[in-house]
Amino acid sequence: MLRRLFAVMLLPLVVCATTAAALAATTVALAPLVTQSVTGAQISAVTDKLASGLIHEADRAVVPAFRLADQSVPLGKVEIAPLPPQVYATYIAVPVQLVVDGRVAKTVTSGYRVQQFIHTAVAAHDLVPGALLGPDDLTLARVLSNGRPSVDVASLVGRKVRAATPRGQQIFVEQTSVNELVKAGAGAILLVRDGPVVLTADVIARNGGGLGESVTVYNAQTNRILSGTVTGPNRVEVTLPEGEEAE
Question: Which of 157, 178, 199 is the last residue of a domain?
Fold first, then answer.
């Protein structure tokens, strides 16, 4: 009897709690929308154009430094108003104001990295270790700068590549080794140019060198040491200044 009476007394409380929860849910569902979203893509569409217009050199470009998040602003007519950009050597910041019905709701900033491109020597095709570089093995290409100076194709011709190099990869001088056309202690032919006259002599190389490098040679007939430029296999050339005679 007492249990039945207690259940009857609790019934109104349960009904009231259920009704309150239902009303609260209804209140949340019917809460008016007071904000709107301005997407990062909308803002970037404005700032991208501004940032790109600040770079005029053919070998420079801008790329976004980060993805701009969507922005929540009050309801109303939205205007994206750019502010003066901040331009640095490697970075550009473009601030904008999000104006709602004539009032500034937020100020956000888009960031951009400034990329520098250079024209430098790259592999014209896949190269194997030890390959002797010729003009057909190299080409000049526009690549993203890594802070190092560009390398001229001519400075690599006649050198050997140290490691396997895929097509299009940059090649630096230290990644190559000298292809010794004249070896220390070996015999060589010395060509001495004195104006229109060209004299030849058998000499001994005192040090080795590759194409275009300077080496010293010893002429046993004249007992003289000369310095010349390597022009080919076992071939060294010397051009005498005007007024100096070959010995």
Answer: 178
